[in-house]
Amino acid sequence: MRTPLSWLAGRYSLGARSVRLAALGSVVASIAIIVTGGIVRVTGSGLGCTDWPMCTGETLAPTAEMGVHGAIEFGNRLLTGALCAVVGWVIITARLQERPMPAVLRGGWAQFWIVVLNAVVGGVTVWMRLSPYIVAAHFLAATLLLTAAVYTWHAAYADAAGGRAEGTAGDAGGAYEGTRQDAGGVRPAARIRSLSAALVAVTALLVVVGTLATGSGPHAGDSSDVARMPFDWTAVTVVHGVLAAVVLALTGALLSALPREGFGAARRKAVVFLAVLVGQGAVGLVQSLTALPSLIVMLHLLGAALVWTGVLQVHLTVNRGSAGDRVPPGGAPLPRARGAATHA
Question: Which CATH number fits domain 13-163: 3.30.160, 1.20.1420, 2.60.40, 3.40.1620?
Answer without folding.
Answer: 1.20.1420
